[in-house]
Amino acid sequence: MKKKPGRKITPLSIFYVFGASIWFVAAAFPFYFTLISSFKEDPEIFRNFIALPVKFHFENYVMAEKMSGIIRATINSLIVSIAAIAIMIFVIVMASYVISRKRIPFSGGISAFLIAALMIPIQSTIVPIVQMVSAIGQRDNLTVLTIIYAGLNTSLVFFVMKNYIDGISREIDEAAVIDGCSMLQLVFRIIVPIAKPSIATCSIVSFLSIYNEYPIANVLISKQSLKTISVALLNFKGNFGTFFSINFAAIIISIIPTVVFYILAQEKVEKSITSGAIKG
Amino acid sequence: MQYKLFGKKYPVEGILMLLPILLLYGIVIIYPLFNMVYTSFFEWSGIVSVPYKFVGLDNYIAFFTDFYTMTAFKNILILIVTGVIFTIPISFFLATVINKKFFGLRAVKTFYFLPVVINRVAIGLMFTFIFFPQTGPFPVILSMLGIANNVNILGNINTAMWGVAFVNTWNDAGFQMIIFSSGMASIPDDIYEAAEIDGVTPWQKLIYITLPMMKSTFKIVLVFILTGAFKVFDLIMALTSGGPGSATQVPSTLLYKNAFTFSKFGYADSIAVLTVVLCLLITYMINHFFRTKSA
């Protein structure tokens, strides 16, 4: 499969194909195993890891939802992620424009200030964040969680966005100003459409990190109906760890959104993660 | 509307448009960071009405004398070592695979990369079943190969952390692969063409062209592997929650446990401060090392 036509078969190329295939199997097997097991009956799972289920037990999925509200949690996570990204993009695009075009005193200093947290592992601030939220008595509040998520990736997103806006020609701004555009209109009517690729990159990177976030949500959210996906999933293991097939069904439900998202926009997701990583 | 500062005119809207992000960033990042450093010098139970008790450097001293600290750093070391000797070669190899053109490339690349976009908790849970004592796929394969019988990888103090490191490598390889791959793609083709005319073997190409040209990529990957080891949290919580005993504790899980189980907030914050300082130091050292080497 991986051999180019007309190329000689050498021990090296055999080793190469072998290595590539091994990792392919190693990477794909856990997903395959989880998927087939989610349709099996418990005793059947460990009897044969490779065979398809004798009978497809779709009721495992119904049970997973009934026992832990895993679908509810998935929806919560999706809503929180999308809202957080919307807020984040809205405030950061405005700020990036203002700073990029030096429409504010000390723009260099403010820019450095906003990028300062880039190298700091943000998870380490979890204790003070939880402290702060508890102090205002707003645990179990998804709006508060959304706002925290909106701010967590500030440094990276601002950095990527400002670089992109720096590269947009100023002549476009000037033309818009002559036409009587206010600065706010200018940003949302002119800059945002041009900066779409950069907005997409930032949204993708942030979506994956916010949707999958676990530690902060785990401490802040304890009400069943408000749980996000990571929290619901891990509680599931604690409460119903011995119901194997239902566990597998819960795992599959929880990973569907990101897998679909990735498969729909593969190239873009890969590029975004690369550029997010290398710039950060 | 405009205002003047140092003889320059600025529009008022500029300030209004900057204000939201400054507020958000201040509340979510900057204030917690300062609060973290501040609290790390106090003893505090996390109850708002209880006042802070100043203890100076006691929290830091406690950390270095804590019984679990040694385990936590040993485990970080395991993650780093497996990252360097397994994740880097594997992901480099995978990058060379996906930079070729062959039938089925898309499918192969998808599965290589898929672990990166998946929830770490879900991955951890998947692997608790793969490692399932005796009857799980991993122990069964081991006994089929005659390596070991009836192993309980995550339940054994001696093997649990290696199990975590294995999953971490599995999880991380796709991410490093995509970074290596973009580094490889940025090497101009004409260099290889020139080398081919000179009759260079594939092996020489790798040693004398690809590797030296990818120095900055290696630097990035190394920073990710070393600082990434400190960020492994979700995986451990899902796989072992730090157990058995304290065999798979790392600084991030210790921090979490001390804060939210034992209510030792000052102590937890001192762990956080040390983690941040260590990560910055590692990043600085790697950058410094690569700079002096290239000079």
Features:
heterodimer, A: 280 residues, mainly alpha, MetI-like fold, 2 domains, 0% strand, B: 295 residues, two-stranded antiparallel sheet, 13 helices
Give your account of this protein's structure.
The complex is a heterodimer of chains A (280) and B (295). By secondary structure, chain A is mostly helical. Chain A folds into two domains: 50 residues, no CATH class; 218 residues, MetI-like (MetI-like fold, Orthogonal Bundle). Chain A contains 15 helices and no strands. Chain A is globular, with a radius of gyration of 24 Å. With 295 residues, chain B is mostly helical. Chain B folds into two domains: 43 residues, no CATH class; 237 residues, MetI-like (MetI-like fold, Orthogonal Bundle), CATH 1.10.3720. Helix content of chain B is 71%, strand content 4%. Chain B has 13 helices and four strands. Chain B has a two-stranded antiparallel ribbon with strand order 1-2. In chain B, helix 2 packs across helix 13 and helix 4 crosses helix 7. The longest helix of chain B is centred in the first third of the chain and has 32 residues. Chain B is globular, with a radius of gyration of 24 Å. The model of chain B has no long low-confidence stretch (mean pLDDT 88). Chains A and B meet through helix 1, helix 4, helix 6, helix 7 and helix 8 of A and strand 2, helix 1, helix 3, helix 4 and helix 5 of B.
